[in-house]
Design goal:
17-stranded mixed β-sheet, two-stranded parallel ribbon, alpha+beta, 19 strands
């Protein structure tokens, strides 16, 4: 057939010219499409992973009974009061003041005890000693919880076991770093050896600290699998929108969190509202995933005993009310009130055959305050 095609092209030169033109046209079209696709990919290219903030950890967190805390008070707008209302007249104040009726003379006489015979005479003008102050249980100032203060930088280290096409081992780390009113949360999961992992994933959330908890402004994710190209995902959380990994924009919900910041947001929520960490309770957090934004409901299940290297610790199991779909990673957490409401165990599952279990391997490490 090749010989016949060559003979036909030699016999009819115009066919050869047409074939060459067709080939050139296809190449030009292919080049235009490739160039256009490259330009679009450049538009959606993501910046490098943010630099990890460096912190020196100098001590360990010791178990202790939880302290009742309250969120930091929000500044109240100034009240606009008219001058006449702000300074009422003396006559109006006098007329508005309640007048207490004088007790009947016989009641006062009956209530007054007779003076003791040995009691010395005390001048009426002599100052009377004041009793020591006693805290009133009904006084709100005496029983008010202490104001919440964001803790310093903290690192939790875990032993990893799981199943991914067979049994896997590894390690993981959740790091909370505070720099003034700025925060960074790093979640690192490593399967295999730390110096030559078979797979690893790093999640990073950055943002600000507010009276309503964390306010993420950026989320980054880097996935490494041996013998494959690394995969990068990035989101921007703007004041009025969430820019997803594919460039689409979604409305930013109040209190929205990302995959990494949700762990610290739940710790803040249960610290400031400990009554929420009770079996049968639930909390809801809007979650910005790489390709959608939706509300997640977390149910508080039974309290369990965790057997850690530093002893037995009671923790409540907190689980999202949803089933994995579309590659979602569903994290269950065991949150310990005696360890500042930190998650001492995290179980992340994608489906029945793909999951990892992170168990705390040492006491949480704290940076210098």
């Amino acid at each position: 057939m090749d010989a016949r095609l060559t003979a036909a092209l030699r016999a009819r030169p115009w066919r050869r010219v047409a074939l060459l033109a067709l080939v050139l046209g296809v190449l030009v079209a292919h080049g235009c499409v490739t160039r256009s696709l490259a330009e679009r990919m450049d538009g959606f290219s993501v910046a490098p992973m943010p630099a990890r903030l460096q912190v020196a950890y100098v001590r360990e967190l010791q178990p202790a009974l939880p302290v009742t805390l309250a969120p930091a008070p929000r500044p109240k707008p100034p009240k606009r009061v008219a001058a006449a209302a702000a300074a009422p007249s003396v006559e109006a104040a006098a007329s508005a003041a309640p007048v207490e009726p004088e007790p009947a003379p016989e009641v006062v006489a009956a209530a007054e005890p007779e003076p003791a015979a040995s009691a010395p005479d005390v001048p009426a003008s002599a100052p009377q000693p004041e009793p020591p102050p006693v805290a009133d249980a009904a006084d709100p100032a005496a029983s008010a919880p202490a104001a919440f203060e964001w803790p310093g930088s903290t690192r939790l280290s875990y032993v990893l076991t799981g199943n991914f096409r067979g049994h896997v081992d590894g390690e993981a780390q959740v790091e909370w770093i505070r720099d003034g009113n700025r925060y960074q949360v790093n979640v690192d999961v490593v399967i295999g050896l730390s110096f030559a992992p078979a797979a690893s994933r790093r999640l990073t959330s950055e943002g600000q600290l507010t009276a309503d908890g964390l306010y993420p402004t950026r989320y980054d994710q880097l996935t490494h699998v041996m013998l494959r190209d690394d995969q990068r995902v990035a989101m921007q959380l703007l004041p009025d929108a969430v820019v997803l990994a594919n460039g689409q924009r979604r409305i930013r919900w109040p209190g929205v969190q990302d995959t990494a910041s949700q762990f610290v947001q739940l710790t803040w929520l249960f610290t400031t509202q400990p009554q929420k960490l009770r079996t049968g309770e639930s909390v809801e957090i809007p979650l910005a995933l790489p390709f959608r934004v939706e509300p997640w409901t977390y149910d508080v299940l039974e309290e369990e005993t965790l057997y850690t290297p530093f002893g037995e610790v009671q923790a409540f199991r907190v689980k999202p009310r949803r089933q994995p779909r579309g590659g979602d990673l569903i994290p269950e957490m065991w949150i310990a009130p005696s360890m500042r409401y930190l998650p001492l165990r995290i179980r992340i599952h994608q489906d029945a055959d793909t999951w990892v279990d992170l168990m705390i391997k040492r006491k949480p490490e704290l940076a210098a305050s």
